[in-house]
Amino acid sequence: MRARWASALLRGAVAGFAGAAAMHAFRLVWESANRHQREHGIFGFDKEADVRGAEWLVRGLAGHALSHRSAQGLGLALHYLYGIAIGAAYAAAETRLEWLSNIRTAPASAVLWLLADEIPVTITDISDPLDRSVRSHAGALAAHLVYVATVRGIL
């Protein structure tokens, strides 16, 4: 059982990395299609949110500020680490909770979008949801659909 769980954890981490990469590629296409207009960027997953999220984390943990360039790199790295962690946790949980595999991609994506993006990004003041368009929030939901579909396709 332990080997099965460890194997699932590793597969989930790989799937999570691939999901994060697919989500990042989607973001680049989305930003280009929306002519890089800030208000239509993907809420919680645009360059500004990357920077503010990294700054928020480092300020909270280390008590100091980051340069803008460092915050950009760290923000994107955190996105990938978060994707890896979510993928690994999902795959490991699925070994014990078989009903997880029966949840359809769209509802799973919506839950992930709300609980891992919209709500925490708003609560931490990384980004103001009212400062973004409906298209921006729809883009965030679509990005999470890409992530979940990629993770499930690999698992």
Mean pLDDT: 93
Uncertain residue ranges: none
Instruction: Report on the biggest sheet.
Output: none
Task: Measure the end-to-end span.
Answer: 18 Å
Instruction: Give the count of helical stretches.
Output: 5
Task: Write a short abstract of this structure.
The protein is built from 5 helices and no strands.
What does this structure look like?
It is a single chain. 75% of the residues lie in helices and 0% in strands. It has five helices and no strands. The longest helix is centred in the first third of the chain and has 32 residues, at 2-33. By secondary structure, the protein is mainly α.
Characteristic terms for this protein:
0% strand; 155 residues; mainly alpha
